[in-house]
From TrEMBL:
Residues 291-529 form the Helicase ATP-binding domain. The lineage of its organism: Bacteria, Bacillati, Actinomycetota, Actinomycetes, Bifidobacteriales. One of its GO terms (molecular function) is ATP binding. It comes from Bifidobacterium reuteri. Keywords: Endonuclease, Hydrolase, Nuclease. This is Type I restriction endonuclease subunit R. Residues 455-471 have a biased composition (Acidic residues). PANTHER family: HELICASE SUPERFAMILY 1 AND 2 DOMAIN-CONTAINING PROTEIN. Residues 434-471 are annotated as: Disordered. It holds the Pfam family SWI2_SNF2. InterPro entries: Helicase_ATP-bd, HsdR_RecA-like_helicase_dom_2, P-loop_NTPase, Restrct_endonuc_type1_HsdR_N, SWI2_SNF2. It comes from the Bacteria. One of its GO terms (biological process) is DNA restriction-modification system. CDD domains: HsdR_N.
């Protein structure tokens, strides 16, 4: 039905375009009049088309039932089909055979074969009947007899997809189509009942697509199925010439090939675990159905793009999938695993021998595990490795899909047989650990290390691994083999493809798994479903909408006449921890939280609203819990039910406490009990701060410093949607709004990297270390010969003996040089591990140095002298907490994440000492605002001017404190004169007093350098 040229902008004109689009993709157009004749409303099947399909594709089976039932055979088959669908559901019937007496087995659908090797299978697939019709009559009930659906897609007589269309030009949008489904479509009609006939319903206009799989009247939930605008968030990209913004629906998503692939390997039915009486359900039948899962556009796009790239590029490539919370990541991973497991070469052989799904948690993700296990698969296809031995055996036996945790590989990396085999590794929640030891051991366990790379095939027999030491000649070959295996495990492995999923990629994750952008050369995600899109589409909530901050002001006094000299950095942290636990602080914050929770959060969700208190330490969690429990006992706070969560044991005033002793039940029950009405306010220390999925969590009370990814992951506990849940609430007692905004910005849209790591920096680090003259090449080689050779009882003492000369040289350095050397060693080890995940460094000497320094580093751990507890020296007075009001945190997504890897410089070589009285004065000035707001703003302005100097920031990151002094002093004086107009009185006082000027200059120097060095260290 070709669209005729017309000037009409009516809905019917749009409908004609849609029908024509489906025809162009391979559907046969069936006019309304013909469909009315063929479609039986009572069975909700185009019986004539189904009958023709069965006769055409399965004549032998038709002959069997014809001999048994005669001329009524088709009615008998239809009756049996309806019985099976009523029990097992339409999806099961389409994927399996319909068996009936006398031994006939019918297929209702032929899926596309993986290759063209079986000609019969190809012919059967092409025999499927794909039909599109319009103004579809479906009603069997009195009020529905004349109702019509705009467009319906049928396959072999079964209506699988319904579509309601609207046109802006007639004053209607996709929202009108949604309302039509909710108010004018009776869910009791067979054609609408989930998994009985139609699998999905689309509401469509020229700009947007929404879908649902279950019509429930006014309770029906439609979700967007738009393409998204990449970094720009939700919706669809601008339409191409001559097309609509939603043309992708019929040109891509619902083409015959695509629709059948969705039916075969995407659509999933979930079932209730228990019936209405609480009895466990053992059979997966339609009556126990919980939901029908149909893929959203980005899920289809990601899986199919990954498959296409894998087929084109072959094994040995990495892919980063940046999908926000709310993206349906568990389903995306499950679908990808099954598609990769069934991917074949042109000769029919498997593309990958095994697909391994890894989670970065000690306990397997139950949701992900359940998602994969619920997908249709033959017995034995999926192996769940609950321990290291199980993982080893699953790998060695060639299990098709293996589910395990990343932490198991260090135990089995040398026990696997992977020669000549290929693996696809899907990583759930890819974090920095995937660029460290566990990731390296994963590659060692699965990489095909049967020999060196092709270009290096002859090296093992050359002098490259001749240790040239007469005392250990017999071990030289073993050591050489081990070095070879270690070097071969570096960089990208030719037989391994990694597919890493995360919502918050760190720089290391981007560089390890990202795809280089051709225009910038910087790595980025292969596929993106952004936080911005997830928020705009309503799959998650914006946790920064209702954000209120509080400022704590306090004064400290000395309790002792002593004025001991202490490490400033550590002492400041001790003082802040001391203040956090001061009874006046605990009581004031607890009262604010409980009062707010009782009045504003507990009534939410019909009285089921829940909150979480994020504390700075386990001890703080216990103190808050005890005080809040006392508050909850008061009549005015009735209904507040606190529970505490932290790991391990804690000794408080001689009493050993655990979360179990405080709560009165086992730790393993906390999450489950918190989901009930038994508890509604969780006080947590680290535990449940990430990876905790509780949709009823409506508020968070933060009393812990949060930065970077940790801030995003912590606050994102609030973003889960729940019926009736509005924008979540945050009360923050520890962070500034600009800190939280800076943490979220890189992850709001696409996460970009500000720069890439230069692998050659490792050689600059090597040079910087050698200048200390702590060790020499001979000592490094000697230790590596011992450690990498055959181990015996002398290995450990010999390694320690060989570290002796370096330890002696180290001891002769002054304290500042010792600190710098130790930090440079640690940075070298981190950088070497990081870079060798990105590329293979074909450098045996560098590998030996890394091995040597790993041992030396453990011997150089700083030994701090015990200091008197801070609480014996100071006391808190005049503590008050001030509500700073609502914070306006608006995200733009314009900030790239900072890559701090690969710089040569190290942080401050010493923790500057100061007298305790000066430390207290500093904190009193900072928190009690003694200088007054005008002066504070002036100093902040000076810091802002300095922070804008990109060259100065780079110098701070890459130089020692001493080397940074000269460029800072010059920049400070320049900034001081540029800012004099901001506060002429203060400028006059500073310029007239050398002592005052020096104090401000030192303060800003310390603050600036410490801040830049902290940024440089964070990943």
């Amino acid at each position: 039905m070709a669209v005729k040229p017309t000037r009409s902008m009516s809905e019917h004109t749009f409908q004609n375009h849609v029908i024509d689009g489906f025809e162009q993709q391979g559907y046969t157009y069936v006019p309304q009049s013909q469909m009315d004749q063929n479609f039986n409303r009572e069975t909700a099947i185009d019986e004539q088309t189904l009958k023709e399909f069965l006769i055409d594709t399965q004549p032998k089976e038709v002959a069997k039932v014809e001999r048994q039932y005669g001329g009524n055979w088709s009615q008998a088959v239809l009756k049996r089909i309806q019985q099976v669908i009523a029990d097992k559901g339409l999806l099961w019937a389409l994927r399996n055979q319909i068996e009936m007496a006398p031994g006939a087995k019918f297929k209702l659908l032929y899926f596309k074969p993986k290759n063209d090797l079986n000609q019969t299978a190809v012919e059967h697939y092409h025999a499927n009947r794909f039909q599109v019709t319009e103004e579809f009559h479906y009603g069997t009930m009195k009020d529905d007899l004349n109702n019509r659906i705009d467009v319906v897609l049928l396959v072999n007589g079964f209506p699988l997809v319904t579509i309601e269309l609207k046109n802006h030009q007639t004053g209607q949008t996709v929202n009108n189509a949604i309302r039509q489904y909710m108010t004018d479509r009776n869910p009791k009609e067979q054609v609408f009942q989930p998994d009985l006939r139609s699998l999905v319903h689309f509401a469509v206009d020229a700009d947007d697509v929404f879908m649902t799989t279950w019509l429930k009247g006014k309770e029906t939930k439609f979700v967007p199925s738009n393409q998204g605008n990449g970094k720009a968030g939700g919706g669809n990209p601008p339409a191409e010439p001559g097309k609509f913004g939603t043309s992708y629906l019929w040109e891509e998503v619902l083409t015959p090939d695509s629709l059948l692939d969705i039916v075969e390997r995407f659509v999933q039915i979930t079932y209730h675990e228990k019936d209405k009486n609480g009895k466990k359900i053992t059979r997966k039948v339609r009556s126990a159905m919980k939901a029908v899962i149909f893929p959203r556009y980005h899920q289809l796009r990601a899986v199919r793009r990954l498959l296409k790239a894998t087929q084109e590029q072959g094994p040995g490539h990495n892919y980063l999938i940046q999908h926000s919370a709310g993206s349906g990541k568990s389903y995306s991973i499950g679908w990808l695993a099954y598609h990769l497991a069934s991917l074949t070469q042109s000769d029919g052989s498997s593309f990958f021998n095994s697909v391994i799904v890894l989670v970065d948690r000690v306990v397997l993700d139950e949701q992900l595990q359940g998602t994969i296990m619920n997908m249709p698969h033959p017995r034995g296809m999926v192996a769940i490795a609950k321990d290291s031995a199980g993982l080893r055996d699953a790998i060695n036996s060639g299990a098709r899909i293996i589910i395990s945790t990343l932490q198991k590989f260090p135990y089995i990396y040398n026990q696997t047989d992977t020669a000549g085999r290929t693996f696809a590794i899907i990583i759930d929640e890819a974090h920095s650990s995937q660029s460290g030891e566990a990731h390296r051991k994963t590659k060692q366990a699965l990489g095909d290390h049967t020999g060196l790379n092709t270009d290096d095939a002859d090296e093992l027999d050359s002098d490259a691994y001749d240790w040239d030491d007469s005392g250990l000649d017999e071990d030289a070959d073993d050591a050489a083999m081990r070095v070879r295996d270690e070097l071969n495990a570096q960089g990208v492995q030719s037989n391994l493809s990694f597919y890493a999923f995360t919502a918050t990629p760190k720089p290391s994750t981007l560089e390890t798994f990202g795809t280089a952008n051709p225009s910038t050369g910087r790595p980025e995600a292969f596929d993106l479903y952004s936080m911005k899109q997830a928020i705009e589409e309503g799959f998650i909530l914006n946790v920064l909408t209702n954000y209120t901050t509080f400022q704590t002001y306090f004064h400290l006094v000395k309790k002792s006449e002593e004025n001991p000299k202490r490490k400033a950095g550590r002492t400041k942290k001790e003082i802040m921890d001391f203040v956090k636990l001061d009874p006046s602080n605990v009581s004031q914050i607890s009262e604010i939280i409980v009062d707010h929770f009782h009045d504003h959060v507990m009534p939410l969700l019909h009285g089921d609203g829940k909150g979480m208190v994020v504390t700075s330490s386990r001890k703080a969690a216990v103190e808050y819990f005890r005080y809040m429990k006392r508050l909850a006992a008061r009549a005015e706070y009735a209904g507040v039910k606190p529970v505490v969560a932290f790991s391990g044991k804690l000794d408080l005033d001689g009493e050993e406490v655990t979360e179990g002793t405080l709560n009165g039940f086992n730790s393993s029950e906390i999450a489950k009990r918190f989901d009930t009405s038994e508890f509604n306010l969780m006080i947590a220390a680290n535990k449940f701060q990430t990876g905790f999925d509780q949709p009823k969590l409506c508020a968070m009370y933060v009393d812990k410093k949060l930065t970077g990814v940790a801030a995003v992951q912590t606050l994102s506990r609030l973003n889960r949607t729940c019926p009736g849940k509005q924008a979540p609430i945050v009360l923050d007692f520890a962070n500034k709004p600009e800190t939280i905004q800076a943490a979220f910005e890189p992850y709001y849209m696409q996460t970009d990297l500000d720069r890439v790591t230069d692998p050659s920096v490792i050689y600059d680090m090597k040079t910087a270390l050698s200048e200390f003259q702590i060790y020499d090449d001979a000592e490094v080689s000697a230790l590596c010969r011992v450690w990498l050779g055959k181990p015996d009882e002398s290995t450990m003492p010999e390694v320690l003996r060989l570290l002796g000369p370096a330890k002696e040289q180290y001891s002769e350095l002054d304290q500042e040089r010792q600190d710098e050397f130790r930090k440079r060693v640690s940075k070298f080890l981190r950088t070497y591990s990081y870079i060798t995940q990105l590329i293979r460094l074909e450098d045996e000497e560098l590998f030996n140095l890394d091995t040597y320094l790993a041992f030396l580093n453990r011997e150089l751990a700083p030994k701090y002298a015990p200091e008197e507890p801070i609480d014996n020296l100071i006391a808190v007075t005049q503590l008050r907490i001030e509500n700073k009001g609502h914070a306006d945190i608006t995200l733009t997504g314009g900030e790239p994440v900072k890559n701090n890897a690969g710089s040569v410089g190290v942080g401050p070589t010493t923790d500057d000492e100061d007298y305790l009285s000066k430390i207290i004065d500093y904190l009193n000035d900072l928190f009690d605002a003694d200088f007054g707001d005008p002066a504070r703003k002036y100093f902040e302005g000076l810091m802002t001017v300095l922070q804008k100097d990109a060259k100065l920031r780079t110098q701070a990151k890459n130089n020692s404190r001493a080397d940074f002094r000269t460029p800072f002093d010059s920049a400070f004086l320049k900034a001081l004169f540029e800012s004099q107009a901001e506060n002429t009185d203060l400028f006059s006082k500073l310029s007239g007093s050398q002592e005052a000027l020096r104090h401000v200059q030192e303060f800003l120097f310390d603050e600036f350098y410490t801040r830049e060095q902290r940024e440089e260290r964070e990943e």
